[in-house]
Amino acid sequence: MPVLCAVALAWMVVSARPIAAQAPPNPPSGPTASSFSGSVVAGQASAQPIDLSLDDAIQRGLKNNLGVILSATQTQQARGQRLSQLQSLLPSVTFNAQESVQQVDLAAEGLRIPGFPVLIGPFGYTDLRAYLNLSLLDLKSLHEYLATRHDFNSAQLSAQDAREMVVLTVGNAYLLVLADQARVTSVDAQVATAKISLDQAIARHEAGTAPRLDELRARVDYQSLQQQSIVSLNQLEKDRLALARTIGLPLDQKFNLTDTAPYSAFDQIDVNAAIRDAHANRKDLAALVEQTAAAQEQRKAATAERLPTVKFAGDYGDIGVNALHSHGTGDAAGTLSVPLFKEFSLRGDAAVAQSQLDTSKAQLSDANAQADADVRDALLDIASAQQQVEVARSSVDLATQELSDAQQRYASGVSDNLPVSQAEQSLAQANDQYVASLYRHNIAKLNLARAVGAAQDYKKYLGGK
């Protein structure tokens, strides 16, 4: 066995050859539906509350929402995969600079020649060399590159669609907090009214003009509304936290919503025109089109595996005992590869690629139908919620008048306070229905904007134009 003194005096390798892309142990995943409820917290909480408009909230969400961030990382990953696959179609050039010193023990190799030295060396050489590798004909790699290019386009479109989802998610959270605030205000007003009724019942009972039952009934109504106030305030605080989570605000940051959600009737629009806009503008549909195109290229790549490939490999450089005493040497080789007995592998790859293509086509067809359904559902919800708002607003007016009449009758001693209690419950229910219907109406308009691919133009839809 030779005793290698092979001491590398200098082993320098300057390589332009790309490193083969390897999948990381935990590759970054794209956003899920729950991702849009989270965010990356930006900044520190301030001692003073901040004013937050709907525009401010959406802009913060577009910057900090987890769904947008994950979409961006997915786009970066798709860009890297496209560049890695592109290299397989381009020349690969490597430069090596090598200095080697070696010593050989002939006895260890079993060579014992009388009069011949047992050890040879040390000897060495210098080799400066460039290597070239080039695929002259490789249709499989070409189609795989085209597939990664479609995947990259799909990732870009998905990132744009993620911004639409952020507008919908943040808008929903903002409007929900507004609805909670309106509900808290309504319940507080009802508590104040119930307190007046309770004070009247106590005064009349103490004066002997009303039974204790009236006082007990009024006290039950008052305490019941107090409980509703506690529940409403708790829900408001929880929904404020949810809004902060979607836009990246620190959870201990206090904020005031500066926008309101006034009712604005929505103009009638052409359903067919809205559906055409959806198919033309929605980025999620365009992303699925690109994914289907990528699956088609992968299917072509599976077919191209059966075709011959032609590759060239060559090198040229100087080699000698040192850089001053060297000679140019080179090597060139062309390779033609033809698969002869890989039938099962080829058929298997083709079957997998075909199944992926069929899946993409089915998903695209379903997504187109779902886009139609989204538009129609949103328009139905708008029409329904619009009618509910009108009815609920009328119910609030009627219940308010009913309560006023009942209170006057009770104060005049014409009746007991049972009608007052019933009127207070009716008013509470009417107010709750009005707040809920107004929220549903605005959310339905946001859903329509999302359905036609115009969520970032949300002001037009919330304004009812």
Can you walk through the features of this model?
With 465 residues, the chain is α+β, with helices and mostly antiparallel strands. The chain has 2 domains: 1-21 and 92-137 and 309-340, Outer membrane efflux proteins (OEP) (Single Sheet), CATH 2.20.200; 65-89 and 138-305 and 342-462, Outer membrane efflux proteins (OEP), CATH 1.20.1600. Helices cover 60% and strands 15% of the residues. The chain has 9 helices and 7 strands. It has helices spanning 54-64, 66-87, 139-207, 212-247, 271-281, 283-304, 343-411, 418-451, 458-462; strands spanning 10-15, 50-52, 92-105, 119-137, 255-257, 309-322, 325-337. The strands form 2 sheets. A 5-stranded antiparallel beta sheet has the order 1-3-4-6-7, with no helix packed on it. A two-stranded parallel ribbon has the order 2-5. A hairpin with a 2-residue loop joins strand 6 (309-322) and strand 7 (325-337). The longest helix is centred in the middle third of the chain and has 69 residues, at 139-207. The radius of gyration is 38 Å and the shape is elongated. It starts with 9 loop residues before the first strand and ends with a helix. 31% of the residues are buried.
